[in-house]
Please model this.
Amino acid sequence: MSIKNKFSLTPPKILVLGFAMIILLGSGLLCLPIATQDGEGLNWLNALFTATSATCVTGLVVVDTGTTFTLFGQLVILSLIQVGGLGFMTFATFFALFVGRKISFRERLLIQESLNQASTQGVVKLVRTILLFTLVSEGIGAVLLAFRFSFDMPAQKAIYYGIFHSISNFNNAGFDLMGEFRSLTGYVEDPIVTLVVCALIILGGIGFMVISDLFEKKSLRRVSLHTKVVLSTTTLLLAAGTVLIFLLEYNNPKTLQPLSAIGKFLASFYQSVTPRTAGSNTLNIPDLRDSTLFLIIILMFIGASPGSTGGGIKTTTLATLLGAVWSQIKGKKDVEMFRYRIIPTMIYKALTVILSSLLLVITVTMILSITEKQANVFMILFEAVSAFGTVGLSMGLTPELSPIGKIIISLTMFIGRLGPLTVAIALAEQTYKELYRYPKGKIMIG
Model:
């Protein structure tokens, strides 16, 4: 293997380096004195953690966003959220198109990898659709939230809060400006804030390929298999999550019990939506029962859909593996969904993603159980899954993390945003096509 081939910049390597450079740039800006209210700037580790959380659209914070940062610092975070949510290649493509430059094939390969597409065909058109859809969604969300916030604060502040929380939640980041780590708990029974924010989270996490497919086909019968799997899995997870949280927390005096009937539903629905990698919350997370917290851990691990602003193993990965399990139970040779046969390569990939993600979460949990002696294993597991799924929900451990813990969680957020496979491929040496195959062998399973 030549030195040139070994260190050549493949699309996965460029994505990893690109995100790393954005994080380092954001860290440097947050260290500036003008970024914080005290005029001293963040120390480098807290700045790195915050920039990583923003760029990886996670929302885990070691300092309170609303009270720690100046307008400059908040705008830096908001910029990192927007770039990290849509991907730096999306913005690079936009600027190239804006100045009239043609997109090369190598750049199309980068866009394909960034947006998790099967081919380079139509990726530039998809970027245009993404930018337009993002602008419209965030704009409508900002107007509605600003209108609601105007009843609680001055108009200028309400407009700014509307824009910030619209961008933050559409990109599934979960950063907020409410102060004192309260998130949106003050609006737990508010239908406007709850439904608008939930809509932004769902639209940002459903995947831009799905949105583009729905706009083009204009009929659920004509959409692709991918879109059908995403929509059906997302609907099932949201409905099941809402019902289970409602039942589990119904008599909890610290969460749902004091709320009205509508408030109970809104709070349950919001807590079912936000683990899909959003990170904001209307109920105080540590007050939830252990059974509810475990359910949220499962939802966080699953995450959003491919090609979206969210993380996790993705809805299609879960659906593919469950389909394979069901086919084995039924004794079928093929995995079938919506009258389509899933190719074996996709099943292997789904299994690889899930197992590598589980291994990552287990490893992180094990390390943090050594470094974070003030927390129990359940709290640490919650934090590890939240970081991997780029969710941002926390049981209160994040501000108490040790320096080593902050570094571990930062790396977990980074890997979770890019995907374990992308990072592994970027770090691995170049592979070659196999020139021979071994004879078949059998082992006992189960």
